Amino acid sequence: MRIDGDGSPGSMTGAGSLLRLIREAEAITRADLVRQTGLARSTIAQRLETLLAHELVYEARGSTSTGGRRPTVLGFNRHAGVVLVADVGATHARLVVSDLGGAPLAEVALDRDISGGPEKTLGWVDERFTELLRDVNRKPEDVRGLGIGVPGPVAFSTGQPINPPIMPGWDGFSIPSWFADRYDAPVLVDNDVNIMAIGEHWTHWRGCGQLLCIKVGTGIGCGIMVGASIHRGAQGAAGDIGHIRLPGHDEVTCRCGNVGCVEAVAGGRALAQRLTAAGLEASNSRDVVRLVRSGEPLAIQAVRDAGRDSPLP
User: Pick the residue with more confidence: 126 or 306?
Assistant: First the structure.
């Protein structure tokens, strides 16, 4: 079953809203759904029929009754399929297969350089997805959706990276189209830190109307939650703070071609290069973290200097 843009099954517009209510246990009977949505019972029944047919919802007899037969309780079937997720960073990727409730069933994290281009990188991602599905005894037909995070601005409506500074060859490449022949499921693509911000808000800060989530890795980015929704800005560039120019660093050239960018001064790649020049073994941001945790003074000082130099929110 394909899901349209508003989160509801394309064949029954609005069924996705019912599914969310059932999944969050805000409505667990047909009467609850009528009260919550204001829809007619016949409309509710029609939309539930689609959800039941795709096994996304199941029915069970309730344990209490106010007279007569016990009411039918509706439940969300988190085992009705799986979701494939890939957080593809500049030099590292984490891939997960989860149930429909978001619980990880299998995952893998590996080093992978995104500069190899979209065809090569996505081919590698799909190979890992195939391995993970095999590990949990699932098939491509069981995949209900894919979520892909990439380290650059994304036109969310099309799933295309837009002038990503650290993703050579990806500009305008349609990631959903690449997966279309492999899975009969929707593919959602966004900037990696936007996804992180959504996850943090959903998991820990649902009552908070505004939230900033800053990621410091090979690059630097910020996810902006406003009114419980992600703010992407023009061409997905909102929060791309890694390419704000810092005064006093004109000698530092960024991979985007500009000079003095926050990322080129304080990003993980920049710190690793600085520590390597000082005689330490550091090829990426994870090496910087490793050196800091081991108590290496030069690494600790480099991170402190980066924090002082970067006027982040």
Answer: 126
